[in-house]
Inverse folding.
């Protein structure tokens, strides 16, 4: 059904139903009311020209809209879409009143893509664009249409989402040749039209299936996949007592210290093995590392107290089992063992660092620096380093305790759900998704409470996006009343996990090759029997275990043996290549490079012999997005039709060149020769 032949007003009249729609209070104290039916919008684009600077440009050649299950509308121009949405908005505005303002929810799978085009033909004023980061649009308003991102909501591709939920109209993957140049007047085949229409039908079907399953409406449905987990966590913390949470929220000054102390997973390559073509490399991986820590370990559970800033008081507090947050000044730092390949202190987290030697982002030695850490970090540093002088600049303590039971019960329930999908045929993708949901509980605690404002400025085409806050302390204090999880729990979660990773590193000793958050790769053998015995008992005691469909019991926090690598080579963090059989298929793990395609491309050029700094991945480096925010392309004529280029984007092939810094190369050159 073409847009110019369809009047949406009768459909809207059927679905203006206040009884089934909840309102959301705005600053104006007016409620936002939603038409009682999800809708979907999508466009298809084609690359049509290149500008004087060599940048490619695209245009929209068809749009499609799904109104509920029954009505599908297609159009070929932006003028048609604007006219169509104007009719809808005029009607909804005319029917708004004291009860609130009516909006139509229009879901878009990857709104960040469509928004680039919408912003070129529509005006979005202050406060009408909500983005988590520049260009990562979650939702936006234009008159009475509220666009939402269904990809951020589902955290799945449209193809996978439709298959997971059993949508009747699945995405017709492969039915559209994207290399073909199309214009708004280009005739489309029935197959091409079916591809376009199925996309929007699939979105609406998936949304309705979820709404019926979860008892949601368009008000309560979360904007992101994490929102479902967030909702359960919020309910759990309110059950525990939100007033208890409020007492734990850090002050602005304390938040700054916690932000300084926070660091993520420990990822590093042993410098003595970097650049070497290794054989028979083993690997162990900790099962559900972050959830295990949340269920089993102890966290700061009372408000932090300021202590006298002395080394004596620090040692006293640690002897008494206090959770400690400290700012330290260290002079004359050096590694205790020169052969140790996993230095702990990250250069990025120290301040005023002088006279240091850097091992790919980690300190081997330093004349002077300042750092903010937890008591867990301090114990690790004391085991791996020596120093000449230590001064305490600030010290805060809290009493250790277990995380609230309602929260850990949610974590355990999610772990049970993930385990139920383990090794089930055809469920690989959904297993990965369930694993992501499980780790979201950690992610919520680690989310920075200081939220930067992501601004979209229509009036500045040369700088459309920016992140800023004019008053960081004020923004933090304004956001605090909405928090239901203390930030320090995220800081301690990663600290506990790094400590557990260290146990595997120390067990591997000189033979440790590479580590990443919850896994260690090594030469020879590694004995984690005693640790795993204790970890399994700890999991049993805390209910941190679940049974898979085959009847096998899985325990959180236990190191599991992975497949050994027949061949292994690394050039630093997130840069390694492997095979499981001698001379077999190569797999690469490089940020921004496809694992499978990277291995195939590497094999074409000599395999491991070619895996050296300077090698460029041309086929496996994925895509880059070119944003044409201010296209300088004059109108041109094709087949008697004028083509006007509006704001657009183009997805192009990318390249990645393997490299290391000169500083790291110097370290490696010396150390590799020394090791040999």
């Amino acid at each position: 059904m073409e847009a110019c032949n369809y009047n949406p007003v009768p459909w809207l009249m059927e679905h203006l139903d206040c009884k089934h729609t909840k309102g959301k209070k705005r600053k104006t104290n007016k409620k936002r009311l939603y038409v009682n039916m999800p809708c979907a919008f999508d466009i298809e684009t084609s690359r049509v020209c290149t500008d004087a600077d060599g940048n490619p440009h695209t245009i929209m050649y068809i749009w499609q809209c799904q109104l509920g299950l029954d009505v599908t509308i297609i159009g070929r121009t932006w003028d048609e879409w604007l006219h169509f949405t104007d009719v809808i908005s005029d009607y909804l505005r005319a029917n708004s009143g004291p009860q609130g303002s009516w909006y139509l929810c229009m879901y878009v799978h990857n709104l960040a893509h469509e928004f680039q085009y919408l912003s070129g033909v529509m005006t979005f004023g202050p406060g009408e664009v909500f983005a988590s980061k520049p260009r990562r649009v979650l939702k936006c308003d234009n008159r009475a249409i509220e666009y939402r991102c269904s990809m951020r909501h589902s955290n799945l591709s449209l193809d996978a989402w439709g298959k997971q939920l059993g949508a009747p109209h699945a995405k017709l993957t492969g039915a559209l040749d994207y290399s073909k140049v199309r214009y708004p007047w280009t005739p489309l085949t029935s197959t091409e039209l079916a591809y376009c229409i199925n996309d929007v039908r699939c979105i609406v079907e998936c949304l309705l299936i979820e709404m019926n399953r979860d008892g949601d409406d368009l008000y309560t449905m979360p904007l992101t996949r994490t929102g479902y987990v967030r909702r359960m966590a919020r309910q759990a913390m309110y059950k525990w007592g939100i007033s208890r949470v409020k007492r734990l929220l850090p002050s602005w000054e304390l938040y700054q210290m916690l932000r300084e102390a926070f660091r993520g997973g420990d990822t590093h390559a042993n410098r003595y093995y970097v650049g070497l073509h290794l054989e028979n490399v083993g690997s162990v991986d900790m099962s559900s590392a972050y959830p295990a820590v949340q269920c089993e370990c102890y966290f700061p559970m009372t408000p932090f107290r300021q202590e006298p800033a002395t080394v004596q008081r620090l040692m006293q507090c640690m002897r008494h089992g206090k959770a400690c947050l400290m700012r330290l000044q260290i002079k004359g730092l050096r590694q205790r063992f020169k052969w140790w390949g996993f230095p702990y202190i990250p250069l990025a987290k120290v301040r005023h660092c002088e006279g240091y030697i850097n091992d790919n982002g980690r300190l081997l030695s330093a004349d002077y620096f300042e750092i903010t850490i937890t008591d867990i970090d301090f114990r690790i540093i004391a085991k791996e380093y020596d120093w000449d002088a230590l001064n305490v600049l600030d010290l805060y303590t809290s009493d250790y305790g277990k995380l609230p039971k309602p929260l850990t019960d949610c974590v355990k329930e999610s772990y049970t759900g993930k385990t139920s999908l383990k090794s089930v045929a055809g469920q690989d993708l959904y297993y990965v998704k369930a694993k992501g949901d499980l780790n979201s509980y950690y992610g919520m605690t680690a989310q920075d409470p200081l939220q930067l404002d992501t601004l979209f400025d229509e009036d500045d085409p040369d700088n459309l996006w920016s992140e800023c806050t004019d008053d960081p302390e004020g923004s933090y204090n304004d956001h605090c009343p909405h928090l239901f999880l203390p930030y320090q729990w995220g800081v301690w979660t990663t600290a506990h996990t790094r400590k557990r990773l260290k146990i595997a590193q120390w067990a591997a000793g000189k033979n440790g090759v590479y580590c990443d958050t919850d896994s260690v790769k090594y030469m020879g053998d590694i004995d984690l029997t005693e640790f795993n015995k204790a970890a399994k008992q700890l999991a049993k005691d805390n209910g941190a275990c679940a049974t898979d469909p085959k009847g096998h019991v899985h325990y959180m926090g236990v190191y599991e043996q992975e497949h050994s690598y027949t061949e292994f080579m690394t050039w630093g963090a997130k840069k390694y290549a492997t095979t499981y059989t001698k001379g077999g298929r190569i797999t690469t793990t490089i940020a921004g490079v496809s694992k499978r395609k990277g291995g195939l491309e590497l094999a074409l050029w000599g395999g491991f012999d070619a895996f050296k700094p300077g090698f460029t991945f041309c086929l496996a480096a994925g895509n880059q997005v070119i944003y044409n925010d201010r296209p300088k392309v004059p109108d041109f004529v094709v087949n008697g039709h004028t083509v006007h280029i509006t704001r657009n984007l183009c997805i192009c092939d990318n390249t990645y060149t393997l490299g290391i810094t000169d500083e790291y190369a110097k370290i490696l050159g010396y150390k590799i020769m020394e090791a040999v």
Observations:
- The first strand starts at residue 24 and ends at 25.
- The radius of gyration is 28 Å.
- Residues 18-29, 670-676 have pLDDT under 50 and may be disordered.
- The CA atoms of residues 522 and 646 lie 54 Å apart.
